[in-house]
Amino acid sequence: LKNPAAPVCPPGWDCDVTCNTGNACAQPVVCATGKCAVHCTGIGTCAMGVNCTTASACQIDCSAGNACAGKVACGKGKCEVNCGVGGGMGTCAAGVDCSLSNDCDIQCTGGNACGGNVVCGTGKCAVGCGVGGGTSTCKSGVQCGAATDCKVQCTGGNACQGKVVCGPGACDVGCGVGGGAGTCASGVDCSSGTACVWNLCH
Predict the structure, then answer these.
(1) The pTM is what?
(2) With 13 labelled, which of 4, 43, 141, 180 sits at a CA distance of 20 to 30 A?
């Protein structure tokens, strides 16, 4: 599907949705039960977000400025979400919900990416906030309280202003690694973890 007016994938199909012209795919992008790849590569695309909750695996690219203003939600399988990769500002503004997935990789790269909560599932979860220099990413924090293996890097300036919450599994949090100032302003909650490592470098 390319720049569809109604970006809804047919039931049972693997789906590849491309929204590459300005403000394309204004309605929610809805994946089916197969594998789903969504490319929101035009400015202001996928404004109502991406619903990948029923897909077997998700790959979501919100790289252009203000892409994916609505929430991005993953399904049970592996989920890769890139917000602002390449420098797009203000992407994934409502956050990323990966709570259903057993394997999440969420990269909030561009400035102000992932303004809403970033929520991990029960399996592996890797979250990069400002890796590459984007500032004020993951503003509402990262919820990793259910994950068995969590890695959170709050690297860019003022990344992770909201609290980073770890669960009972392995949890490795880096705050300001690489020189970003003002990271993890609300702290890191390791209270329920027995294998929590918090590197505070700002």
Answers:
(1) 0.94
(2) 43
